Amino acid sequence: MSPLYKAPSEHGHHTVFKPGQDGIEWLGLDMLRLKAGERWQGSFGQVETAFVILGGRCHLTLAGPQPNTWHNLGGRADVFSGAGTTVYLPPKAEIEVEAVSGLEVALASSPCDVELPPVVIGPDDVKVISAGASNWRRDVRLMIPPGSPISQRMIVGETLNPPGNWSGVPPHKHDLNSDIENFLEEFYLFKARPGDGYGVQLMYHDDQGEGLLVGDNRVSVMLKGYHPTVAAPGVTLCYLWVLAGEVKDYDITIDPRFGWVAQTESVLRENRNG
Fold this sequence. Notes:
Elements: E1 4-6, E2 12-17, E3 28-34, E4 39-43, E5 47-55, E6 57-63, E7 68-74, E8 86-89, E9 94-99, E10 103-111, E11 119-121, E12 127-131, E13 138-144, E14 155-161, E15 166-167, E16 172-173, E17 185-193, E18 198-205, E19 208-215, E20 218-222, E21 229-231, E22 236-244, E23 253-254, H1 261-273
Antiparallel strand pairs: 1-20, 2-3, 3-10, 4-9, 5-8, 5-10, 6-7, 6-9, 8-11, 12-13, 13-14, 14-22, 15-21, 16-23, 17-20, 17-22, 18-19, 18-21
């Protein structure tokens, strides 16, 4: 079975998983939820961290080797309200967070052995792409895209999946190192609207696999195989996705049974724009 976690919904700081757990080597995830006026202090070891504001607004103070202070970061109500704010934090960061409003933050991390500067990626810095076509169309928000110099190992984004639609199509994988593929671990942190809605996360290879029921605050970790996602009718899914590995190159293998998808997408776009 692939790792599937439930991100705690209680206030405070909680670790969802960390490297060395359930076969995971390169990724960790913590959640932070604060009420307006509450503060939290945290310190990090030899990891780089993506401080992803899922909802709310905060002041953030960074101590350690590269101190800085940012005021009134964030602002979106939730992940369904548009692109958000992410802060890249270098290794050995020490932070203090003060919630200006009700605040929810995902702290994604990966081992890191280089010293990079902290970076704020605001909503205007997020590249939003309408990906796919027909019933596999979705919106992809790139905060730390492949090839970005912001991080050593992490690639970070969000996908907004309309009701009944598929994402991760054409199905692809990145579970081995070869001439055409690079090994990357990946997790999805799901949000659902309505909150009791669900989707299905598939993971398969060589016609063997599994389907996981995913919904609000579920976290699926992909260590092997192709991994498309589908939202149930009437349910909008939005998921934060983070990838990391020894090498950050985003080299993937597409399921050959779906090689036709790219050509079909171009035809559908031409018909739509014609």
